[in-house]
């Protein structure tokens, strides 16, 4: 999609596209209302600024749009879609790594009442497992903030992917 075609979408269609990048109604509505954008960089900067203003309910809403890291059943299903693209390297992991990812993800969810969020793109399963091991002992408030930062990286990456064109794209540094 080009930026011009995005700017020309109806509000509902623009919001729908944005929700595919970050599953937060208020964020998507506010960003759709800011159109037209003059450049992808302007859109990315405004998206980042809006995300930094998100409250706990909005952050948790965004988290609810993600599959758990290492959810092999979803990744192998024909319905995997974006999860396979973002977590595809998990499929190559050993059973030991996958089982530990599952176990720690379950513990993480029990402790925090939200899933472990990490920008998985380009990360093999053992790296995501190491990150989960490092973060699992943090308090809920710390993890809410860690997850929000990771959600920001994910959103930026997805926005860039939405507007793939011949123009040079700014890159996210998770």
TrEMBL record:
Catalytic activity: 5-hydroxy-2-oxo-4-ureido-2,5-dihydro-1H-imidazole-5-carboxylate + H(+) = (S)-allantoin + CO2
Organism: Echinimonas agarilytica
Protein name (database record): 2-oxo-4-hydroxy-4-carboxy-5-ureidoimidazoline decarboxylase
InterPro entries in UniProt: OHCU_decarboxylase (IPR018020), OHCU_decarboxylase_sf (IPR036778)
Species lineage: Bacteria, Pseudomonadati, Pseudomonadota, Gammaproteobacteria, Alteromonadales
GO molecular function: 2-oxo-4-hydroxy-4-carboxy-5-ureidoimidazoline decarboxylase activity
The Oxo-4-hydroxy-4-carboxy-5-ureidoimidazoline decarboxylase domain, residue ranges: 7-160
EC identifiers of the protein: 4.1.1.97
Gene3D superfamilies tied to this protein: Oxo-4-hydroxy-4-carboxy-5-ureidoimidazoline decarboxylase (1.10.3330.10)
NCBIfam families in UniProt: PRK13798.1
Biological-process GO terms, alphabetical: purine nucleobase metabolic process; urate catabolic process
Keyword terms: Decarboxylase, Lyase, Purine metabolism
Pathway membership: Purine metabolism; urate degradation; (S)-allantoin from urate: step 3/3
């Amino acid at each position: 999609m080009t930026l011009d075609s995005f700017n020309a979408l109806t509000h509902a269609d623009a919001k729908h596209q944005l929700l595919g990048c970050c599953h937060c109604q208020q964020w998507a509505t506010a960003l759709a209302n800011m159109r037209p954008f003059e450049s992808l960089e302007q859109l990315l900067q405004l998206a980042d600024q809006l995300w930094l203003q998100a409250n706990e309910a909005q952050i948790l809403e965004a988290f609810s749009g993600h599959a758990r890291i290492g959810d092999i059943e979803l990744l192998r299903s024909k319905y995997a879609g974006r999860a396979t693209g973002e977590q595809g390297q998990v499929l190559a992991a050993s059973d030991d790594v996958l089982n530990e990812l599952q176990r720690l993800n379950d513990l993480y969810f029990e402790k925090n009442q939200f899933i472990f969020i990490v920008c998985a793109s380009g990360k093999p399963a053992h790296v995501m497992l190491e990150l989960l091991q490092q973060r699992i002992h943090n308090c809920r408030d710390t993890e809410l903030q860690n997850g929000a930062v990771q959600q920001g990286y994910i959103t930026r990456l997805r926005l860039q992917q939405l507007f793939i064109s011949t123009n040079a794209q700014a890159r996210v540094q998770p």
